[in-house]
Write a structure and sequence with these properties.
13 helices; binds NADP nicotinamide-adenine-dinucleotide phosphate; prephenate dehydrogenase (NAD+) activity (chains A, B); alpha/beta; PDH_N (chains A, B); homodimer; 6-phosphogluconate dehydrogenase C-terminal fold
């Protein structure tokens, strides 16, 4: 299916994801005009300096005016406010989308503000880094990554395809599913992993002071991997846990049940159970590498810190 | 303090760590002769082919004969058997050491076999990758990493210094502490992180089959970091949990208490508590990067999988 070209693309929120979309769209010529807006005047000034937008709009409403596609790239709990602001500006046939890490709550928050002549098609690119802000984005962020669309029931197939074409143009593989299913899958692939990474780094921070400094020193044993995840944006993650509560609590319940079993095996010295568990988990990594979602290089091919001896 | 040169270095167990020591010692000329042995004849054959040993010995006893320094590089629960085999061969003044990830249990298992004319100085290089076997090792593995020595009370300072000099020669920073303290620190920096990584990957593997395949597909959201840790050697990790039970259970207890608090904050929608927790953990990563134990590059500077679009 060929999709109509995007004349005006409006990106609301110029953080890691929004600025990556603007950069990719410009670099690959996916829209005639890329308009960027952000609630923070400081961010708007930096976007002007960085030069990845054709137009920097003062308000989301101004950015959305006459746009074919408006993408809210803001923390999940702010998506309703963006929809309220841009809704009245949406022209007939315009698409309103987002990039939020939770989809059920976003759909619910945005839907009331979308006029019947426009289309609401939420989306979530499964790609990111631990950094945020307009400087952190880059055009290649979505290459070879998945973008999940969660069109509501009865969504216009042409609008869905137009949005999908933009994501494919940025290098992503596109898949569609229900918002509910998205939230369940992401709870285990992303939300619970972030929670337990935040948690173990927090546990380490709560130790006696001398112990904490040793934890930092000897972090190369595995802990430092967790600190990368736990360095992600606090606002973004607060919103994720506030809005995907049900699925997160369900998956967290399974996680702690399984952890109790491992804990019991350790307490009673059950080496066979431990060995069996530690063997089964290897196949999953193999599959992820085979699917091209991960490097096979030892230690992620991680380079040492600048200034480190090599 | 200047340390006597090592004439004959014996490495018992030619896996990731043993083969890295042999390579580094040869490359940097830290011993006149590097002798390597392994219980597995297939591994010995591969060591001959790889050519990083001056001599490949058929048995640990043969390797240890006339050696100044013998390093057991085997899974923690095998260190007692190695000590039993090499003990009778240790010449006066010889040092027996190891690289095990747990130190209290190793000390206990090896000590009975060390004759009074030799020195037992356990050690643990805090460096590794998720791979094992003689092909996985490389000479630079220990550069800018810590090596922790846990000399028993009353250990000979000259023997300690001789071992420390070897580790510094391989690029490591050396620190000494008691075995008990080592096991507590490593429980939180390494053992519990490995356990929870193994656990969440296991939880994902136990989901309904279609859900598991989606977890693999959308793993870039954070989950794939955990799969790297959970791809580590099952024998090594079974031994770690069997031998550092007390410290692991203590730290695991703190971890689950803290997790319950986060879970509660999610259940009752306490955004402020979540935000506060997610903010505190960032400082720890900054310190690790400042100490040169980690790269500051987004996503570890991870390169995409071979064959991935870019
Ligand atoms: N980071 C990731 O790895 C990742 C991956 C996939 C999806 N996502 C999703 O992408 C979205 C954005 O994340 P990000 O990492 O790009 O965040 P970010 O770097 O923190 O950027 C968000 C930007 O949106 C602005 N903003 C907040 N509320 C606004 C509003 N009402 N109107 C206009 N601008 C507003 C923020 O300004 P202030 O600084 O003034 O608040 C900030 O500049 C989130 O929903 C997140 O769930 C993130
Ligand atoms: N991997 C890491 O990241 C890391 C980091 C720091 C410390 N360590 C510690 O280093 C030690 C070795 O780990 P590794 O990763 O190098 O393991 P590895 O790659 O699995 O190698 C261990 C080698 O020792 C051999 N072996 C086992 N029992 C033996 C015995 N009784 N006599 C002689 N050889 C024997 C094994 O042969 P088989 O294959 O026949 O068993 C294998 O070839 C462990 O104690 C571990 O805790 C590991």
């Amino acid at each position: 299916m060929s999709a109509a070209r995007i004349s005006r693309l409006a990106v609301i929120g110029a953080g890691l994801i929004g600025s990556s979309i603007a950069r990719a769209a410009r670099e690959k010529g996916l829209a005639d005009t890329v308009v960027v807006s952000d609630a923070d005047p400081g961010v708007r000034a930096r976007v002007r300096l960085l030069g990845f937008a054709d137009v920097v709009a003062e308000t989301a409403a101004e950015a959305a005016r006459d746009a074919d596609l408006v993408i809210a790239c803001v923390p999940v709990c702010a998506s309703g406010a963006v929809a309220a602001e841009v809704g009245p500006e949406l022209k007939p046939g315009a698409i309103l989308s987002d990039v939020g890490s939770v989809k059920g709550a976003v759909l619910e928050a945005m839907a009331p503000f979308v006029p019947p002549h426009a289309h609401l098609i939420p989306a979530h690119p499964v790609a990111g880094t631990e950094f945020s802000g307009p400087e952190a984005g880059f055009a290649a962020l979505f290459e070879n990554r998945w973008c999940i669309l969660t069109p509501p029931e009865g969504a216009d197939p042409e609008a869905v395809e137009r949005l999908a074409a933009l994501w494919r143009g940025m290098g992503a593989n596109v898949e569609a599913m229900t918002a509910r299913h998205h939230d369940l899958v992401l709870a285990i692939t992303s939300h619970v992993p972030h929670l337990i990474a935040y948690n173990i780094v927090g546990t380490a921070a709560h130790l006696e002071e001398t112990l904490t400094s040793e934890v930092i020193k000897f972090s190369a044993g595995g802990f430092r991997d967790f600190t990368r995840i736990a360095a992600s944006d606090p606002t973004m993650w607060r919103d994720v846990f506030l809005t995907n509560r049900e699925a997160v609590l369900e998956m967290l319940g399974r996680f702690t049940e399984d952890l109790s079993a491992l804990q019991r095996a350790i307490r009673y010295g059950d080496g066979e159970a431990l060995f069996a568990h530690f063997t089964r988990t290897r196949a999953i990594r193999r599959s992820i590498i085979e699917m091209g979602q991960e490097t096979a290089a030892p230690d992620f091919g991680r380079r040492p810190a600048p200034g480190a001896a090599e």
